[in-house]
Amino acid sequence: MVMNRAPLLFPPAVLQSGAQREGLNSLFKRLCGFNYLSVNAVLGQLVMPITGGDGRRLTRMGYPGELINRGMEPSSRIISAIARLTACPLNLEALTFGELAGIPGSSAIGMAMYRKWCPRCFEDDLATEAGAYERLIWSLSSVETCHTHECLLVNKCRHCGKGPFRMLLGRDLPGFCPACQAWLGDESVDRVSKQDPNGRFLIWVASSYATLLNDPLDDLPDVRESFSRILYALLDHRFEGVQVHLANALQRNRSVINTWLHKRASPSWMVLMELSYMFQLPVEEILRGNIDCVEFSSEQVPPPTTLVRLSNPRKKPKKRDPDELSRFLLRVENGELPGVTTMREVAVRLGLDPRELSRLLPVESARLSQILKGRRQAAGQLKRQEYRASLQRHVPMVVRRLLDDGITVHRRSVDQALAKSGIKSRRSEARYVKELVSEAMSFFDSLEASS
Ligand SMILES: [Zn+2]
Ligand SMILES: [Zn+2]
Asked: In the CATH scheme, what architecture does the domain 217-311 have?
């Protein structure tokens, strides 16, 4: 068998620390590619036998690919296999979220089921010797934007339209579509709008995680301890010690606040991010329990997820299957339902209140709302172009007719004549019509002068 001739060659190194560091998933794929082996072959014949599994059956089903970057157990299987096969000099634990997962008292960190990428980061990688690689931070379920380029991460190939893709697939190289092998880099992707509270929150979440990856996090106290200190400080500093007010601001009920204050439960990572955003407290200071930062806190419009609770705190949420909802969202994102152009319509189709939808799926909803907004803008632009094209055709004819009939050419007469041709006047295009009219007039004048 080919792979019995270990060690495998190690691919060129890319960043192994900081926010732009490579993910273990990416290194594993590059290692396979560099040795002309498919991911499936290496998983099936090398990784699984080590862990005692039946290679063939486990190749596809056995390894939880979406957990490869989480750190601790699922990652360590791959790490020990790579170490055995390559005599690798690197600390591969650094390519996982092991450090975050290891913070005492912290909640489990949410890993994305499907891969996401920044087309602009891939484009930047073209200039480097090692080539494209996937960033560790992209594998978090709540990270939906690139912290460097501030654009939405992408999960579908723009050439063949396929996706989203699982974390590890048979033939799989970072930067290329696993379905059609096309290059996934793209420089023309737009930034997320910061005018939009959804967009601001998404960027905040991504850059908070980026900061955590940039700074060493050793010697952190227990999260429950730090979070409780911060809550007490907020309580004193902003809510005059009244727990109800703090509970209202965070839109959790008082008993939840109480368990946090008494260190009986860990806040989820999403709660940490929400609190961080709402009071503009750096998330690493919350983790350190540094209450000095509370003094400089400022209140922001709460993130969309919290807004929902604010406006409707008592309503009991209907039980809905989040998987079913997110499949529907994905269909809208894929353009399978062209009639659905706003989040309100998405919610109506699902029989939900729009706020309820963004409470149930905060990240996916925020992402879809950005995408739909982009589509609406593009559609608006197209309509405007079409409208202008018909003005270009009709205005000269209208002017000619008015001149021939001896009618004075001014705004009202032009508008009336256009209306007869089925073109309603639009206030926003009045200037453009005026330009076209004067262009036509001077054209006809010059004809007259030359005859
Ligand atoms: Zn990027
Ligand atoms: Zn493709």
From this structure: Orthogonal Bundle (1.10)
